[in-house]
């Protein structure tokens, strides 16, 4: 089966022409129980937990849910939930369009935790930070229930304040790095998203960026602690996993879609990087072991 891709309009109580949604997590779950099953969405998502526990699976990685867990996801990621009965918190959906149109001087991608290179989508907040963010989420939920002057402005600014606070938790080391490295990393990411199915040689990306491969490797090691080859392989394998479980394509079909000259190249890369075969991976997904 193909797993669903939800739009904001699939949920009740959306605002701003289906570009924004905010709710308490318990109320959200009462009306939208289907979110516990594996799915994607075409919008950005924030979830902040204040009570309860569970497991959140995002792109085949499992994260424990506890008080203070905050998740941030971008369009296209696959995820599912296993939640305790006493789960509570806040959930926010928003589109790139509403954010970028309001903040004309910056875009949502300016926050590095929304880069596809980042290999996790969760932080556990300290008590002080948890209390601070809970106040902002409460204000957002209260504002949604009011029909007040400048309500849209307040909601979007509260969202941005929350994103800024996440960035301050998430990026303390990034700020100390050469800012040029961060710009080059964003350039590499954009090129990789555009070309990863057809161009797998690290030198291709270095040439496109007009820098040496040695320098590009220096950038990815300093910012991600990964080589350029690692980053390219991880992007290919993530898409391969999505195709295996979502569209149930054969290995031959996936290898062809991802631009491998032979299915054997994809199979060997998968086994080398993941430690299991594609068949074993699919079976583990069916058994809910991943």
Structure overview:
With 290 residues, the chain is an alpha+beta fold. It folds into 2 domains: 5-174, Jelly Rolls; 179-286, Arc Repressor Mutant, subunit A (Orthogonal Bundle), CATH 1.10.10.60. Helices cover 47% and strands 16% of the residues. The chain has 11 helices and 10 strands. It has helices spanning 25-31, 96-102, 127-145, 151-170, 179-195, 202-208, 213-224, 228-247, 251-257, 263-274, 278-286; strands at residues 5-6, 20-24, 40-41, 44-51, 54-58, 61-65, 69-73, 79-83, 88-94, 122-124. A 5-stranded antiparallel sheet has the order 2-9-4-7-10. The chain has a 3-stranded antiparallel sheet with strand order 6-5-8, with no helix packed on it. Helix 3 packs antiparallel against helix 4 and helix 5 (179-195) packs across helix 7 (213-224). The longest helix is centred in the middle third of the chain and has 20 residues, at 151-170. The radius of gyration is 20 Å and the shape is globular. 24% of the residues are buried.
């Amino acid at each position: 089966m193909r797993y669903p891709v939800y739009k904001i309009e699939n949920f009740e109580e959306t605002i701003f022409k289906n570009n924004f949604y905010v709710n308490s997590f318990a109320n959200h779950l009462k009306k939208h129980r289907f979110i516990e099953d594996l799915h994607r969405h075409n919008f950005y998502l924030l979830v902040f937990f204040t009570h309860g526990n569970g497991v959140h699976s995002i792109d085949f990685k499992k994260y424990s849910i506890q008080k203070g867990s905050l998740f941030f996801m971008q369009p296209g990621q696959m995820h599912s939930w296993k939640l305790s009965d006493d789960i509570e918190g806040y959930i926010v959906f928003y589109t790139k369009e509403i954010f970028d149109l309001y903040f004309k001087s910056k875009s949502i991608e300016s926050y590095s935790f929304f880069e596809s290179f980042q290999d996790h989508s969760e932080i556990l907040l300290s008590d002080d930070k948890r209390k601070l963010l809970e106040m902002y989420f409460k204000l957002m939920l209260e504002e949604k229930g009011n029909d007040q002057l400048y309500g849209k402005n307040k909601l979007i600014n509260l969202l941005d304040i929350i994103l800024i606070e996440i960035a301050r938790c998430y990026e303390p080391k990034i700020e100390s790095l050469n800012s040029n490295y961060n710009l080059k990393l964003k350039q590499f990411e954009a090129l990789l998203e555009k070309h990863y199915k057809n161009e797998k040689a690290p030198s291709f990306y270095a040439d496109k960026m007009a820098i040496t491969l040695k320098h590009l490797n220096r950038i990815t090691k300093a910012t991600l602690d990964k080589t350029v080859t690692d980053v390219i392989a991880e992007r290919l394998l993530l898409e391969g996993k999505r195709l295996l479980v979502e569209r149930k394509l054969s290995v031959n079909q996936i290898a062809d879609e991802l631009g491998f000259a032979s299915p054997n190249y994809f199979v060997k890369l998968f086994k080398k990087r993941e430690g299991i075969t594609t068949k074993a991976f699919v079976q583990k997904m069916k058994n809910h072991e991943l």
